[in-house]
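Kindly draft a polypeptide, keeping tokens residue-aligned:

***
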Amino acid sequence: MAIKECQSAGIQVKMITGDHAATASAIAAQMGIGNGHVLTGIELENLSVSTVFLAGIFGVFEWGMLQGYSTELSRTLSINTLVTLEVWYLFSSRYVHGSSLTTEGIRGTKAVFFAIGLVGMLQAAFTYLSPIQFLFKTEPLNFHQIAVIALIGMVGFIIFEVDKLILLKFSNNK
């Protein structure tokens, strides 16, 4: 078997692929490699989404610190970026098998816009109400900071849509 040949040549096999997670797991177990954990396509897709969130949230925090903002303000930037990315991801994930940039995708449903409006109001309270600022150690954002967060959200949406289109293209070519 090819895996045995690689191992005998001193190559450490780190990954087994298969047409099904159980196949890859069985081959790895038979060869005595791996820990039994298998990454599926959906987990890899979630990994790319998580990477966008991680980059946006930690990126805006570091940007805030480099601007000389306080830790509290940088934290506020990060939390608002998280919520903004969640909203943009909601729009993107509503249509799994196609672009969300359609008239139907933009109009959506009343329930989605109601939920986004409610989240927006709660986020504004979190960001601007003094008792909540005191409780969570946050600071209010100015227009420029909100624009940066909005830009990060839009870039995230574009990445989510491109990622979805690439996955659809590859799944349609099978």
Remarks:
- Residues 41-172 form one domain.
- The mean pLDDT is 85.
